[in-house]
Specification:
single chain; five-stranded parallel sheet; 12% strand; 277 residues; alpha/beta; two-stranded antiparallel ribbon; Rossmann fold
């Protein structure tokens, strides 16, 4: 069971897990020639921090009532999610070799009917946040001790359903809910601010009644300190704007829109593996 207690070695452990996750996700996408490496790599440090420094869970009991809930709203970033779940012990590593194969449990979008550790099916952007809010409200009503975390893309913030959820969470003061926005500023085809500007994103969430923290999504110390904030110390839901780099960790992928769903050729794969050490 993970109790997600921060220790002197937490950052080192998370760094090691994140490196393994990047290398494994790269292998999966290269083997299948399908995936979303850019968004995987911008989110992996966040997921590694959650699973190895913040969340309470028991992979042997995925339905444990007191587990913290995590919803991966940007459901296309399965390279990040599946490697995190495997590293956390929810299923064997060799399942990752079946990524997106016919009849695989590891679909292009996560399915809770197939994989332990998946709280809800996601993929249509804008759906995961409202579902996570419902989960958090249920805990609020029943007095349960679990915390609910949800990760969205920043392009996903252009979906109106997110703002309905934001308004409701602020109104109900759902303090056991933490929204993390993967703010890499790129979405499929263009930058977020070219497509439908989001800034000032922090002020918008404050206006909806949220606490807001803006941090680096690749700094393990900042991630641990912010995501591990005790629920009892706040009176509002928390929005964490995690500034990230799309394709983080591989020089020729970083900050390039084409790597939203680009896949590496053999030469690029070899170069990326050399850089991920």
């Amino acid at each position: 069971m993970s109790h997600a207690l921060k220790t002197d070695n937490s950052e080192g452990l998370i760094r090691d897990k994140a490196l393994w996750m990047r290398r494994r996700a790269l292998q999966m996408v290269f083997d299948k020639q399908l995936g979303h490496l850019g968004g995987d790599f911008s989110a992996i440090d966040i997921l590694a921090t959650l699973y190895f420094g913040v969340l309470r869970y028991d992979p042997a009991r995925p339905d444990w009532a007191d587990r913290d809930r995590f919803v991966m709203s940007k459901g296309h970033a399965t390279g990040a999610l599946y490697t995190a779940l495997s590293a956390a012990g929810y299923f064997p590593e060799d399942w990752l070799d079946t990524y997106m194969a016919h009849h695989s449990k590891l679909n292009g979008h996560p399915n809770r009917q197939y994989l332990p550790g998946v709280e809800t099916n996601t993929g249509p952007l804008g759906h995961g946040f409202p579902v996570a809010l419902g989960i958090a409200i249920a805990g609020q009503i029943t007095g349960a001790g679990y915390r609910t975390y949800v990760l969205t893309g920043d392009g996903e913030q252009q979906e109106g359903s997110n703002w309905e959820a934001a308004m409701t969470a602020g109104h109900r003061k759902v303090k056991n809910l933490t929204l993390i926005i993967d703010r890499n500023r790129l979405q499929q085809g263009a930058g977020t601010e070219e497509t439908a500007g989001l800034d000032p994103l922090d002020d918008k969430y404050r206006a909806f009644g949220w606490e807001v923290a803006e941090i680096s999504g690749h700094d393990y110390g900042q991630l641990l300190d912010t995501l591990g904030t005790p629920v009892g110390s706040r009176e509002k839901p928390l929005c964490v704007i995690a500034n990230t780099v799309k394709g983080k960790g591989v020089s020729f992928m970083e900050n390039l829109t084409k790597w939203h769903h680009g896949v590496p050729n053999a030469e690029q794969f070899a170069q990326a593996m050399k850089e991920l050490v």
